Amino acid sequence: MKANTAHNKPQAIKRAIGLVEWQDLRQLTRGQIAYNLILPYPFLLLSWWSASQSWYVLACMFSYLFFASAFRQAHDGYHHSLGTGKHTTTVLLLLLSVLLMTSLHSIRATHMEHHRNPLGDSDIEGNLAKLSWWQAMLGGVSYRFAIYRQGLRLSSQRNQRIAWLEFGLIALVIMVTLVLILMNVSTLSLLTQVLLYHLATMMLANASVGIIAVWGVHHDCEETLARTERNPLINLLTFNLLYHVEHHLFPAVPSNHLPELAKRLDKVVPHLTEQHVTPDRAAVISVIDNRWQKIKEGRRKRHDENECPIRKRFA
What we know:
With 315 residues, the chain is mostly helical. Helix content is 70%, strand content 0%. The chain is built from 16 helices and no strands.
């Protein structure tokens, strides 16, 4: 399997990354720590305000920015690279679990296994990368529940208790929303509207995140464990989350410094950063050309099969 091929080459990768300076990139300034802590919440408030005005296109844009930036905050929290202490990180993950409508402490357990055995048999988080793109897209919901089950199995007792607390708080939010709908009180209609919008967008985001956050950064990675991205606009809109091979090679480096780490990798070990998340023009043209050749080959075969056997004998 391709994924196992990549996993069976750790020594070559270790020798390569030993050439890269990275320890200085673990440090964060006070301004960077404040940025990490505040980042998602202005987008959340803007999405709620837009939804309250029934400006749903604008609300969806802000909801995407909230989800992506919150995903980054949670991801750095998993690796203790936000610049905060352990207890503060726990509180942040608990808060984000309720806002994102997903148990981040159960996901944290599977994510740590993903780093211990990337794309291996025990890496349930990386399973989507072994499927075709459409299977990964359709399997988003069942994938999320599989993550929860595995996360609870892998968790310590403390982590399990926090994960169940997260599930309970999420259920409470859903029940409150249903009660508000049934009450149909005009003074609460605006709150109900915003809650319904938020629940719908977060559930949709959670169902679709695997196609980007797993399949998009890990599929068909034979020589390296993950892909990366060099388009500055895409990296801006994804809050540096697509610098993924950089993250796998140096998980202790905060997202703030992944662009600088990418420059060092490109200079010292460029063969580890050749596979990108978004294809370049040459790759797109190559895929289209290959597809066209397959279509022409299929047409030729069908023509040959339909040709008169007597005519073929005297041709």
